[in-house]
UniProtKB/TrEMBL annotation:
Entry's Gene Ontology cellular component terms: nucleus
Transmembrane segments: none
Myb-like domain ranges (all copies): 9-61, 62-112
Protein name: Uncharacterized protein
Location(s), subcellular: Nucleus
Main location: nucleus
Molecular-function annotations in GO: DNA-binding transcription factor activity; transcription cis-regulatory region binding
Record-level GO BP terms: regulation of lignin biosynthetic process
Keyword DNA-binding: yes
Family annotation (InterPro entries): Homeodomain-like_sf, Myb_dom, Myb_TF_plants, SANT/Myb
DNA sequence: AAACTTCTCAACCGCTTGCAT
DNA sequence: TATGCAAGCGGTTGAGAAGTT
């Protein structure tokens, strides 16, 4: 249907409001109240469109608007609400008396967003930015040659080589353990479980919109991601049902608004209150699991994810290895302490040497920059 | 002091939603 | 059910302020 313009385009003033205009608008609304913004300008003697009047009133002239800097409490509230609601500025503003959605949006974009980025937190997902991760940071920065302890640390990660996403997760945990800033460390640790969920939701959402004839297949793949999420209850103590429901719901919307859906799916997974959640990543359990001879649980999970990511769709993780990455072509298999990469075999005792070659290949950071 | 860059935020634009007919 | 319209929303813009060289 054709849409009528919100106001007549000709003869209406635009741009900054003058004190006289403000006065007219305030006087009129005080006398007649709000409502019918279309006819208000004419009745109030203003050469403005109704939309402009409404905006001026709601964002600036309203008597209950709080002016001045945002308090620490307000800022914390905004961050927490944003982690839950996303860019729903009006919803956030509804919980901050005296603040307008426009004001909060501006404050977010000019202050909070930058601060989160500086802390290494993605302002969209509120998760640590894994794209900035580098496993080399696991080694002591000052040590040109890694110590035996460093190599042992890396060796412990060897079984994860076939699971790039888990490798990144574990790396994040280790990095957070050595972080200089205490609160950042705590935040990263608390965020990990939620991050795992969010990554999967994000990946499902970011998958290219399917052509009409392939819609069913795409939805199937996203459902598979949800199923995969449910298959790691030993690692992520969250409600798998909830995760699956959220992913499935998100997948239904994906055809229309993939970006918004991603954000919604991530936010709906509510990272822990001030990042405290009812789920926890059990890193020791993760390491124990991957060090089992057959690592069957991980294999099962990983194969479920990867089997649903054919046709170049990386459903398993938001930061899954791209198809161009060396790992995509790895012919990997694991068995009793031996890991095979593309036909080459190495025992655990050779892990450190092997990792020197493989880790950099696994973490192709440039793909995410 | 001038020129330039960066930051801030009020206002606008275009789209969506919800309601009345 | 389809249409028209008002109101609301979120993203973006651009002028002025503030900071830097």
């Amino acid at each position: 249907m054709g849409r009528a313009p919100c106001c007549e385009k000709s003869g209406l003033k635009k741009g900054p409001w003058t004190p006289e205009e403000d006065e007219k608008l305030v006087a009129y609304i005080k006398k007649h109240g709000q409502g019918n913004w279309r006819t208000l300008p004419k009745n109030a003697g203003l050469a403005r469109c109704g939309k402009s009047c409404r905006l001026r009133w709601t964002n600036y002239l309203r008597p209950d608007i709080k002016r001045g800097r945002f308090s620490f409490e307000e800022e914390e509230t905004i961050i927490q609400l944003h982690s839950i609601l996303g860019n729903k500025w009006s919803a956030i503003a509804a919980r901050l008396p005296g603040r307008t959605d426009n004001e909060i949006k501006n404050y977010w974009n000019t202050h909070i967003r930058k601060r989160l980025l500086r802390r290494g937190i993605d302002p969209v997902t509120h998760a640590p930015r894994l794209d900035l991760l580098d496993l080399s940071a696991l080694l002591k920065p000052a040590a040109y040659y890694p110590t035996q302890a460093d190599l042992d640390t890396l060796r412990a990660f060897e079984p994860l080589a076939n699971y790039p996403d888990l490798l990144r997760l574990a790396a994040t945990t280790l990095l957070s353990g050595s972080a200089a800033i205490a609160d950042q460390q705590q935040q990263q640790q608390q965020l990990l479980p939620w991050l795992l969920q969010a990554q999967m939701a994000q990946a499902a959402a970011m998958a290219p919109p399917p052509p009409p004839q392939q819609g069913g297949q795409n939805q199937f793949m996203q459902q598979q991601a949800a199923v995969a999420a449910c298959q790691i209850p030993d690692l992520v103590h969250a409600s798998p049902t909830t995760v699956a429901q959220q992913l499935a719901a998100a997948a239904q919307q994906q055809q229309h608004q993939p970006q918004e859906m991603a954000a919604a799916a991530c936010h709906s997974m509510q990272p822990p209150t001030g990042y405290a959640a009812d789920c926890q990543l059990d890193v020791p359990a993760l390491m124990q699991m991957v060090q089992q001879p057959d690592a069957s649980n991980l294999q099962q999970w990983s194969s479920t994810v990867t089997s649903s990511s054919n046709n170049n769709h990386n459903v398993g993780s938001g930061v899954s290895t791209p198809s161009s990455s060396p790992v995509a072509g790895l012919n990997h298999s694991t068995s009793a302490g031996t890991t095979t990469y593309g036909g080459a075999s190495a025992s655990s005792s050779d892990a450190a040497a092997l990792f020197n070659l493989q880790l950099s290949d696994l973490l192709d950071v440039s793909d995410y920059m």
